[in-house]
Design a protein that fits this description.
The chain has 119 residues and is mainly alpha-helical. A hairpin with a 2-residue loop joins β2 and β3. The protein has a single domain, classed as Arc Repressor Mutant, subunit A. The chain is built from six helices and three strands; from the N terminus they run ααβααββαα. InterPro entries: ArsR-like_HTH, HTH_ArsR_DNA-bd_dom, Metal_resp_trans_reg, WH-like_DNA-bd_sf, WH_DNA-bd_sf. This is Regulatory protein ArsR. GO terms for molecular function: DNA binding; DNA-binding transcription factor activity.
């Protein structure tokens, strides 16, 4: 058995491994990753998300429906508007770490390491 840095049990035979694969499959789409990134700052309506990710509201709504089914985003209704927000910090962290990993694949000195040096 192994443990991550937070002390959580991450056994190789964990029943959550298959569910983790489903999470990765859900995030194997650039629009959904951009939606997660856009929601890091808080809740947004579909129109605002569409503008942020450069897609039509219809396309964004379809992706949001999938993210909602996966319990990665939640909704709040205000009149006829629907606002979306991240269900928890894990999707945000997963996407952030994936982008940081991508930076490593193209840059020997990734930007995110420079930002940490300044702090």
């Amino acid at each position: 058995m192994s443990e991550d840095s937070r002390g959580c049990d991450l056994a190789l035979d964990s029943p959550y491994v298959e569910l983790a694969v489903e999470v990765f499959a859900m995030l194997a789409d650039a629009t959904r990753v951009r939606i997660i990134l856009a929601l890091r700052g808080g809740e947004l309506a579909v129109g605002d998300l569409a503008q942020a990710v450069g897609k039509s509201p219809t396309v964004v709504s379809q992706h949001l429906a999938k993210l909602r089914l996966a319990r990665m985003v939640t909704t709040r209704h205000e009149g006829t508007r629907v606002f979306y927000k991240l269900a928890d910090e894990h999707a945000r962290q997963l996407v952030t770490d994936a982008v940081f990993q991508a930076e490593h694949s193209i840059d020997a000195h990734p930007r995110h390491h420079h930002a940490q040096d300044v702090q």
